[in-house]
Design goal:
mainly alpha
Length: 113
């Protein structure tokens, strides 16, 4: 989905002067707020910002957003999202995905293959 924001010129100039792409900053703000209010999962933030899991965790940390506690239901939901992504993306097999999810359950932090 593509969204258009109308920002007054003066405010847009100030945001641009502060550095960075205003569109990217808006996207990041939406992702941060979505994660804070638990509308978005870590995986969804990662997809939205085109970041790896580790980069997403670092991004959240830089913005002082703690990682959500992942319970069994959340982990199952994350697994379902990864399963869907597996069908359309970089996972070589369901076993790669399974191994990655299992290591996440054990608390190991590493990036997806």
């Amino acid at each position: 989905m593509e969204v258009t924001l109308h920002i007054p010129d003066e405010i847009a100039k100030r945001l641009s002067a502060a550095g960075g792409d205003v569109s990217r900053r808006a996207l990041e703000a939406i992702a941060l707020e979505g994660y804070r209010d638990q509308t978005l999962t870590l995986y969804q933030v990662s997809e939205m910002l085109a970041l790896s899991r580790i980069e997403t965790e670092d991004f959240l940390g830089q913005h002082h957003v703690p990682l959500a506690v992942i319970n069994e239901a959340d982990l199952d939901r994350e697994a379902a999202l990864f399963e869907a992504a597996c069908r359309r993306s970089r996972w070589r097999s369901r076993f790669d995905l399974y191994d990655w999810i299992q290591s996440a359950r054990l608390g190991h932090r590493h990036d997806a293959p």
